[in-house]
């Protein structure tokens, strides 16, 4: 059963229907998605628990919150908050087993909290010499952290010490990903390069050639055969698993930027942008499928997918966490054959809450151009 209590696709009456007030008072209404969570300060980071309907938030004041979320009206509530960080909390991540929450901050500290009651279990003060940017659990005991100066550390929680330290990037590390075997760690950096580190052998492998703009995100797709990186220029760069030196393909989204990205299926990612729009994008063949949701005009900081892949959460500068129904994305099949289409049609709405259907704010969101000269829109080589 879905831990959120959200209706299965097609079960819901949708949120737009308003019953009479007496009926609402008698029975809690079931929504298509959980209600927005309104925060006291803007969130830098969110994470969704791997098994339960729990959401962690880290904000610009350094506070960390845990919420339980539900599609039952009024069912979402705050479980605990923690104010141990001295400066802005930059990233939060649940351990693989879901018992611990890792948080990193501009104050250079790493905190490990017990998910159940929010107790601070481990504090690694001055973990890096620069402000921390991101954290990624690799195994139950091993996790990685990246900082503003481009330094990477891989830690063993049992030793409370790093087992790998590397300074290969010239600019901040924005995001990290790891393969299914927990062997290779990939880092995206503001210097435009993708870094590859071998965790098992505890060594640096290589940097890709620099791409245009800062690399802001990195995800694995196609059962680990492809790696996609988002850039601040609004381009997605694709790498073959065995060919990290140079991008095999690139795809320019008609977006101001790609600031964050999460994989939904083996072929589809959702991207968040400075324009506040969450786009669903199919990779190879490369297409923008449409708009999943939006924080009107507010830059999107982070996206997270719920277990089961039916629900997407997003946070932005508007001090809200919003939830979006992404259950339709798994069923979309993108044909290799591209039909001739009118240039400049509106971005297609992919959920009932997505304003893709001609609302004024989105009137200037246009479909993607046919690949620009030199940009491949082919399947690339596997």
TrEMBL record:
For the region Disordered, give the residue spans: 1-32, 360-382
The source's domain of life comes to: Eukaryota
Q: Do the record's keywords include Repeat? A: yes
Which key words are in the record?
Answer: Nucleus, Repeat, WD repeat
Name the major location: nucleus
SMART domains linked:
WD40 (SM00320)
GO cellular component terms given for this protein:
nucleus
Q: Where is the composition biased (Acidic residues)?
A: 10-24
**WD repeat ranges, renumbered to this chain:** 166-200, 300-334
Q: Where does the record place it?
A: Nucleus
Recorded family membership: Belongs to the WD repeat WDR55 family.
What is the protein name stated in its UniProt record? WD repeat-containing protein 55
Protein's organism: Crypturellus undulatus
Gene, per the UniProt record: Wdr55
